[in-house]
Amino acid sequence: MPSMRSTESIFLRLERRGWPMDVAGIYVLDSAPEGPLDFDDVRTVFAQRLAASPVANRVVARAPLHIGEDRWTQADSIDLDAHMHHRAVPEPGDLSALWEAVLEVTGEPLDRGRPLWEAWYLTGLADGRAALVLRLHHAVTDGMGLLALQQLLFDRAPTPVSPDHEQAALVGRPHPSLLRRALVEVPSRLVGTTLAAIRLVDRLAHPASDQPPSLPGYLPSLTAPPPVTLFNRHVRDPRKSMAALSLPFDHVQAARKVLPGTTINDVLLSLVTGAMRAYLSARDDLPDKPIRTTCPVNIRAPGNDGSYGNHLTTMWVDLPVHLDEPVERLAAVHASSAAAKKALPRSRADWDSLADVGDLLLPGVVSAAMAFAGTRAFGLFPPTQNLTVSTLAGPREPLYLTTRRITNVFLRGVVCPPIHLFFAAITYDQDVHVTVTTVRELCPDPDALVDGMRVELDRLLSALH
Fold first, then answer.
1. Residue 31 CA to chain centroid, in angstroms?
2. In the prediction, which pLDDT does 220 show?
């Protein structure tokens, strides 16, 4: 059985009840005179195309005696009835009702006894629209892998379902007994642990950059931590809140002219900064120094963007919520982002070191450490970050699920203690679709955050005149 990469097992160890670790795409489908697509048609698309995905039947094979490694195996069949579901969004069928339905159907972790994906077809939206929610566990793939799967399921032109088309066959793998796995994998884990220790010592002795040595970003800093905000508080209730907006891509692109040399990502981070400043200020929680976000970075080789798995590292960017003017904030974001990009070799080494630390410890020890991060006692340590901001470049032309045009693509972010706020942005067709996912106990009104992003964009554009 193929080994599970440490970065993949980390996402499994982070997960617990109420805190799912899956990537979720939300695809809003246009209406038609004949009404929403029939669920059977949606199911047929999955039945005919999923076999082409290498992750569609991937299943976790638990480590024998909890000493060896969790590994991947392939199921030889998929029960679509266990993975695909249909329900109606409650009245009035607006976007708020859609978000509530999405949070309800994605509120718990995926069943690890089956392939780690799930789809929900939601009807009952206003004006006859519908939505498809597609979940993929982060251990299986990252956001780029979700884009690869949507390319498999969706078309670039209306394509009627062909019910006569045969369902593609899946190829499974034999499952060895636990005893056989233990005899093979426990010794191999000892070898792997030794190699991980060697790699870790080598990275410490030979840093990835010529910058002064410093703690990895995922460890609390006692000298330069970000400020504590309301989003760093301990929570008891894992229920989430969610809001979204769509911004014209041309408007976001135009905002770059305010400060030549800035990128689309810089502008989006600046919009988040302005929104966070307004939100924290209104709640008497505005710090006098920048807050800090992590930004996942794709490290796939050029031309390999369609691959599955987790091929990412993280960069740490300061968001200057303490600055008054939008243009000043954009300039500071650009400078911090540029510095973070220069430090990417070190960030990638830090991420690899975290994976090696995971290899050095028993899975149960790592899981206990992850669980501790969600306790009140963990709040005694300085925070490592205040939020996460993820951006993805999706297709710049419309996609179709059979004959229905996909009008909007949103992403439900991953929220897991101690990080309780996730901004996810994806470019699709002519817009940038942004979603805020957070914890209801801390932020019952995430619409205020997306409204703040719109206001910040307007202020940047007004600076052009």
1. 28
2. 55
**Residue 311 CB-half CA count within 13 A:** 14
Q: Is residue 390 part of a domain?
A: yes
Instruction: Indicate the number of domains in the chain.
Output: 1
Residue 177 within any structural domain of the chain: no
Annotate 199-231 with three-state secondary structure.
Answer: HHHHHHHCCCCCCCCCCCCCCCCCCCCCCCCHH
Q: What is the DSSP letter of 269?
A: H
Q: Is residue 216 part of a domain?
A: no
- pLDDT of amino acid 142: 87
Q: What is the pLDDT of residue 74?
A: 87
Q: Is residue 111 part of a domain?
A: no
Residue 422, domain CATH: 3.30.559.30
CB-CB contact of 382 with 222 (8 Å) = yes
Q: In 34-142, where does DSSP find H-type helix?
A: 39-49, 80-83, 95-105
Phi, psi of 387 (to 5 degrees): -165, 175
pLDDT digits (tens, 9 = 90+) for 242-285: 999 999 999 999 999 999 999 999 999 999 999 999 999 999 99
Can you give the residue range of the structural domain that contains 448? Answer: 223-396+418-462
What CA dihedral angle connects 227, 230, 232 and 235, to 10 degrees?
Answer: 160
Overall average pLDDT of the 60-87 stretch: 82
Please report which confidence band the pLDDT of residue 234 belongs to, taking 50, 70 and 90 as the band edges: very high
Residue type for 380, please? L
Please tell me the predicted confidence (pLDDT) of residue 65. Answer: 60
Cα torsion 199, 200, 201, 205: sign: positive
Q: For position 302, what pLDDT does the model report?
A: 74
CA distances from 117 to 43, 292, 408 (A): 14, 31, 21
